[in-house]
Write a structure and sequence with these properties.
Helix content: 25-40%
Largest sheet: 6 strands, mixed
CATH class of the largest domain: Alpha Beta
Number of domains: 2
Strand content: 15-25%
CATH architecture of the largest domain: 3-Layer(aba) Sandwich
Number of strands: 11
Mean pLDDT: 80
Order of helices and strands: HHEEHEEHEEHHEHEHEEHEH
Shape: elongated
Structural class: alpha/beta
CATH superfamily of the largest domain: von Willebrand factor, type A domain
CATH topology of the largest domain: Rossmann fold
Distance between the termini: 29 Å
């Protein structure tokens, strides 16, 4: 069983409704690399390039061959042109870290499958992309606690990623204050993905841009259900806030659905415009879209993945 087979296998007795994917999906997923802010480390001379836990090796320059150099690093094409031996010089990039902020507040329980189940599938996918490409991934839960599920470094951690996500249940309240707390911890630079239904104060979105500026390339992925997009039928309704417990009496006529739609579309446009002006990738996950649609379609089209 391959790493993604175990990552996305159906797991009996758990609350996570993961989906089994075919080999074609697996291969496509593992070809992706998330764009990240990286720092270069020390130069390495005459050594064979390859994946390493300390970061990727990137070709930098040539220098003349010296005793002790690895002869496999001699560039024989250069030798043929110059009749002199040169070896390749590499610089090691520091591993980047993908920070995944996963909203697990009470409102994420809505939908079928729930918004949280879909969000956990996306989080698992992005975490795997990061660790498969040689980087690390940290998953932080937004439910008022901002607790970390851990930092995952290697390809063989797929089961640990899924086990950690299986412990996450919808509860609590997420908000912009969670982002301030995370920024204060000064997490490692790399990249950021915020997966949420985005039912928080949009007037304080500057906290998100500040966090993205400190971490590197960022994506905001609103996960929406039919309950988020469609108003109840006309009539009198007492609507309770699933996160605060507050309720309000709402009375709507025949135009209630249209008014509700305008409010929702206006909110999404506010988020979209903010991300556009802040250089943050934006890809909403609508209820009729699949995980493949969001990863290989709308999210990829934003430029969140390296080309």
């Amino acid at each position: 069983m391959g790493i993604i087979d175990s990552l996305f296998r159906r797991r009996s007795g758990t609350t996570m409704t993961a989906t089994a994917f075919d080999a074609g999906f697996i291969r496509r997923l593992e070809l992706l690399i998330i764009a990240a802010a990286r720092a270069s480390g020390s130069l390495r001379y005459g050594r064979r390039p390859g994946r390493a836990t300390g970061g990727r090796l990137i070709f930098q320059d040539y220098r003349e061959f010296a005793p002790g150099d690895d002869i496999r690093m001699i560039d024989w094409n250069v030798y043929a042109r110059t009749d002199r031996l040169y070896v390749k010089v590499y610089t090691r990039e520091e591993n980047a870290r993908l920070t995944i902020l996963l909203d697990s507040s009470a409102s994420m329980a809505f939908g079928s499958p729930s918004k949280l189940d879909r969000a956990k599938q996306l989080a698992a996918s992005l975490a795997h992309i990061a660790v498969f490409s040689g980087d690390s991934a940290q998953i932080v839960i937004l439910d008022g606690s901002t607790r970390s599920l851990g930092v995952f470094h290697s390809r063989d951690k797929s089961a640990e990623i899924l086990d950690a996500l299986d412990t996450v249940e919808p509860s609590g309240r997420a908000g912009i204050d969670d982002l301030k707390i995370i920024a204060a911890r000064q997490p490692q630079r790399g990249s950021l993905a915020l997966i949420s239904d985005c039912w928080w104060d949009v007037s304080r979105l500057s906290e998100l841009s500040a966090l993205a500026l400190s971490l590197g390339p960022a994506a905001l992925i609103p996960v929406l259900s039919n309950d988020d997009l469609n108003a109840p039928p006309p009539g009198r309704w007492r609507i309770a806030d699933s996160e605060t417990g507050d309720d309000v009496l709402v009375e709507g006529g025949p135009d209630m659905a249209e008014k509700f739609r305008r409010v929702v579309n206006g909110r999404l446009e506010t988020l979209r415009s903010f991300c556009r002006s802040s250089g943050i990738c934006f890809a909403e996950w609508l209820p009729d879209a699949t995980l493949e649609d969001i990863v290989f379609g709308s999210l990829r089209q934003t430029g969140y993945f390296e080309q």
